[in-house]
Amino acid sequence: MKAVVLGGYGLIGSAVMRALAGAGFAVTGMGRSAAAARRMGPGFDWIIRDIPSVDTPEWRDLLRDADVVVNAAGALQDGGRDDLSAIHEVAVKRITAALEGSATRVVQISAAGVSAHASTEFFRSKARGDAILQGSGLDHVILRPVLVIGPAAYGGTALLRAAAAIPFVGLQILPGAQVQTVALDDLARAVVLAAQGAIPSGTVADLTEDDSRSFPELVQTVRRWQGGSDPKLRLPLPGVLLKASSAVADLLGHLGWRSPLRSTAIRALSDGIAGDPGAWQAAGGFRCRSLDETLAALPATVQERWFARMFLLFPLLVLLLALFWSLSGAIGLIRFDAAVAVLTERGVATGLAQGAVALGALADLLLGLAVLSRRWLRPGLIGMITVSLGYLIFGTVLTPDIWADPLGPFVKVLPGIGLALVVLGLADDR
């Protein structure tokens, strides 16, 4: 049987692809990033397309031979790279139209808590997409997982790990929020059962453990799993500070950053993440593992602890680079004559010195602004490293005595290169 997995290199999609392949399906993944696809599964077949932009005739061609279509594509919030209506509704409408009259089974991965009257557009748009599929007349199963816990971390699960890794302090974030979890492997296994036809068509079911816990209790459980000691100090996080963080995260979303602190994630968390396993078990499904059972099956290695710590530090490192380079460029323009004098006093022609200072200052300013955009982060970092090396090479040729300057302006370029290399090494978001 042939299965096509939309959003195949995502947290859920990648696990589903491996599980389906292990069950004997011929699996093809679909997503818009060829690089992410290669990293996730170089041995799989891939269709590289921007899912919301595919029209009905192309879907009909792409899915002609598919026995199962698994829709694991989704987005949390509108932003620079995402359009909720396009991915959750328009794409589903086109896919169902393309599959009209076929025997293809569609397995839709939705979310627990979706409804037309939910507090966020994420849940409302998901609900509208589910309704389109339910009204299509196609063979379908809709699975609605709660907070998914797996070996990979992305979005909310990355934030959870990072919150648990804060040293010494236990932040009491949204203490009234109740959260249930589901193991990523259980979700993938459920998709395989649905793809095999073991779950009746028309089933709409939450995938969740039986118990729930407060978000601070969840963070504490993950902290212990990571091997961390209990916090020395427990501090409540003021609601106003959380709202301010969400507002900043929303603004950064327009620059392509998919922060788990965006308002949709915080609102969903404050509302609680809960489901009812009854419909799933009534449809012939298995009991989903508890959080303790899920974590017991996942070793908390040094990679896990590194990721949790670096997830907290990564935005700070990007901000430091942006400030360093932007301020450097701005100061060069503001104190233009003084900067030119550094070169002319050493015998460099005035015109050449003015051109070098102006070009260098503008390059610094543009590179500092570039890394604030997710799309331009990697090119900006490479530019920073290249320009820094250029400064050292040409600076050594033109003004070698500056190496002996007691303030070390050339020497300080070296840790700047190192910082850019570190951020470049952490730049992948999947």
TrEMBL record:
Domain NAD(P)-binding per the UniProt entry, residue ranges: 7-148
Origin superkingdom: Bacteria
Transmembrane regions: 6-30, 311-336, 348-372, 379-398, 410-427
Pfam families assigned to the protein according to its UniProt record, in alphabetical order: DoxX_3, NAD_binding_10
GO molecular function: protein-containing complex binding
Entry keywords, A to Z: Membrane, Transmembrane, Transmembrane helix
Name assigned to this protein: NAD(P)H-binding protein
Source species: Thalassovita mangrovi
